[in-house]
């Protein structure tokens, strides 16, 4: 029903545009003014596409991507912000295991913890896989390994902060062209070491209206040469040896 309504509105708009353009020409007898009227009627529903896509393509080509301002050698671990212990355990198994530890703030009690691998799962500080009976961490636990949860003071938390310093902002065309930035921060200076910048484009309000009816996304995002994980490993270069913190 909504789709038919949108089609009816578009059809009515085409009839209206044709009527207005004809009236302009009949009253002025000027082809120039006729074409101006035609251009205006075309731009009313499509200006965001005509303006937005070239700007989006330009920003993707010139402004998006990974920008590394400073690299750090021999990094053993980093801070990931608020999290749950079990999620930290799975982060070790699901992602790059080159780092020795992960620091985080427990979202339930507000305390700070450091987690690292241990080749012995009988410690009271081992993170249990709990209800997560399947997956890489559960398998590692069954084979005698575990990720330790060790409380630390806030002063001991790693200064390398990857806690999703994420920012979304609309630019030039609200709701249709969005800039997204993810940063790796140095907490001691509160300055970014690196950032990943990308742009998303909604392809105009007409396309979005149709996509909401057809239930598919019309949003496009810049294709990046490097991923966030590559930015992380190139910015915070892991310390070699004793990998996974076999303490």
Give the secondary structure arrangement, pairings included:
Layout: H1 2-28, H2 31-62, E1 65-68, E2 72-75, E3 77-83, H3 85-94, E4 101-106, E5 112-118, H4 136-142, E6 146-152, E7 160-170, E8 177-186, E9 191-201, H5 205-214, E10 220-221, H6 228-235, E11 236-238
Parallel strand pairs: 2-11, 3-4
Antiparallel strand pairs: 1-9, 4-5, 5-6, 7-8, 8-9, 9-10
Report on the structure:
- The chain has 247 residues and is an alpha+beta fold.
- Among the domains are: 58 residues, no CATH class; 76 residues, no CATH class.
- Helices cover 38% and strands 29% of the residues.
- The chain has six helices and eleven strands.
- The strands form three sheets. Strands 1, 7, 8, 9 and 10 form a five-stranded antiparallel β-sheet that branches.
- A hairpin with a 6-residue loop joins strand 7 and strand 8.
- Helix 1 crosses helix 2.
- The model has no long low-confidence stretch (mean pLDDT 81).
Short description:
The protein is α+β, with helices and mostly antiparallel strands. The protein has helices at 2-28, 31-62, 85-94, 136-142, 205-214, 228-235, and strands at residues 65-68, 72-75, 77-83, 101-106, 112-118, 146-152, 160-170, 177-186, 191-201, 220-221, 236-238. Among the domains are: 2-59, no CATH class; 81-156, no CATH class.
């Amino acid at each position: 029903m909504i789709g038919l309504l949108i089609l009816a509105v578009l059809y009515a708009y085409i009839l209206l545009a044709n009527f207005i353009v004809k009236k302009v020409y009949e009253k002025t007898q000027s082809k120039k003014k006729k074409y101006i009227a035609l251009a205006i009627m075309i731009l009313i529903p499509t200006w965001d596409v005509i303006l937005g896509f070239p700007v989006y393509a330009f920003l993707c080509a010139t402004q998006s991507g990974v920008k590394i301002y400073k690299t750090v050698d021999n990094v053993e671990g980093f801070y990931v912000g608020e999290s749950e212990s079990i999620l930290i355990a799975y982060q070790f198994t699901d992602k790059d295991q080159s780092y020795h530890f992960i620091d985080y703030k427990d979202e339930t009690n507000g305390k700070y913890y450091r987690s690292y691998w241990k080749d012995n799962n009988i410690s009271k500080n081992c993170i249990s896989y709990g209800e997560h009976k399947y997956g890489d961490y559960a398998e590692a636990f069954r084979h005698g390994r575990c990720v330790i949860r060790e409380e630390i003071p806030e002063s001991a938390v790693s200064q390398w902060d990857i806690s999703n310093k994420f920012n979304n902002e609309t630019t030039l065309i609200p709701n249709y062209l969005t800039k997204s930035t993810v940063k790796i921060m140095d907490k001691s200076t509160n300055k970014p070491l690196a950032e990943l910048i990308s742009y998303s484009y909604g392809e105009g309000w007409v396309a979005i209206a149709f996509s909401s009816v057809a239930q598919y996304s019309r949003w496009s995002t810049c294709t990046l040469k490097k991923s966030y994980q590559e930015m992380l490993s190139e910015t915070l270069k892991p310390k070699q040896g004793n990998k996974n913190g076999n303490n």
